[in-house]
Amino acid sequence: MRGYHCRGIGSRHARDREARAKSSPGNGVSLLQRVLLSRTDRLGDVILSTPVATAIKKAFPAAEVHFLARNYTADILEMHPAVDGIIRIDEVNEAGALSKLLRQYSFDAVVALYPRPALAWAFVRAGIPLRVGTGYRWYSLLYNRRIYEHRKHAARHEAEFNLQLLAPLGINDAEVEFQVRFDNEIEATLANKLAANGIEKKFVVMHPGSGGSARDWPPEHFAALAKHLVSEKKHQVVLTGHQGEQMLTQQIQQLSGEKLIDLAGRLTLKELAGVIRRAALFVGNSSGPLHLARMVGTPVTAFYPPITACRPERWGPYGCRADVLMSQQEECFRCRKSQERVCACMRAISVEQAILKLEEML
Questions:
Q1: Domain CATH number, residue 302
Q2: Is residue 175 in some structural domain?
Q3: Are 223 and 296 part of one and the same domain?
Q4: Domain check: are 348 and 251 in the same one?
Q5: How many domains does the structure of the chain reveal?
Q6: Which of 20-29, 85-94, 233-242, 338-347 has the lowest mean pLDDT?
């Protein structure tokens, strides 16, 4: 994989790219050589977009697939076998610099998985001939292939919504498929780190935060569940989170009264993926690491609120709806209006429910 910054990779005449973008098998874009996927938001969103790269590679094996993404999600994209390059938007600071950089790549098509007006304008200025995006934004005229499908009603999963954007490339009915590859050197370093922390047997990863992207199960519930796993089931419990969640994991450690292994703020994303892959189970709220668990094939137990914007039908671990616990199925208008991260509906998911679910999983 090549991690690109601001290096040019040659240019071709715009007319040639236009011809390739229009030439297609049954409108098949069989001559596409280089495609850009734009997803500049959060970790979970990026993970749920990676099946798009897989689908493009299957349809056009010779094509290069590049991502426009943020620095902190680049580690996960580097682990994907269908991703050939990453343009880190954080490193493009000057006005107009992004369109100049994109022009150097001579992309034949861009798929705007996370539409933003400034990015849509940059794609036009970069001369990308085929620009795919939503038809429901005020700036949608900047896309010349538009998809008219609202996501806000959660009619399907986010990963499936993403694949729908490939129809203008002649790719229809692609299936959601997650792929990942692990670096042997990083895995060896991680194995030593886990051994140094006394992680030797079957363990459960508990990720109690959500980075503010969803609602959270209460810390005291996580602590009671951790106590049960350690004292009753003799499982090791590994707490994970980013640096800003260290106070949360420390609180859970104290409330549990058990010896938990706290790795919050001590792992890179690639190391986190390796830890989760080794775990017997991942337990957590709706978050990027939850989708990472699904990506690496680890069973999950997840906690979700009955709020349309956060519902598991759209944002749950893909294909694992039965492994999601909610307090109720019907919409909770009280919690939808609440700004509390730990809302009443999340508190209503009992520790006993979680224990019963874990009994099924372990």
A1: 3.40.50.2000
A2: no
A3: yes
A4: yes
A5: 2
A6: 20-29
Look at residues 144, 169, 194 and tell me which one is the last residue of a structural domain. 169
User: Are 349 and 221 spatial neighbours (Cβ–Cβ below 8 Å)?
Assistant: yes
Residues 157 and 231 in one domain: no
**Tokens 């001559």 sit on residue:** 31
Name which of 288, 48, 79, 44 is nearest 163 in CA terms: 48
Of 89, 91, 87, 80, nearest in space to 105 by CA: 87
Amino acid residing at 329: Q
SS (H, E, C) 265-311: CCCCHHHHHHHHHHCCEEEEECCHHHHHHHHHCCCEEEECCCCHHHC
Q: Among 109, 140, 169, where does a domain finish?
A: 169
Q: What is the pTM of this model?
A: 0.90
Residue in the structure block whose two tokens are 């938001």: 41
Q: Which domain holds residue 33?
A: 2-169
Structure-token pair, residue 329: 């199925």
79 HSE (CA, 13 A, CB side): 25
Query: How, if at all, do strands 34-38 and 64-69 pair?
Result: parallel
Asked if 338 and 191 sit in the same domain, the reply is: yes
Separation CA 111–CA 131 (nearest Å)? 6
Q: What is the pLDDT of residues 185-236, one digit of tens each?
A: 999 999 999 999 999 778 999 999 998 778 899 999 999 999 999 999 999 9
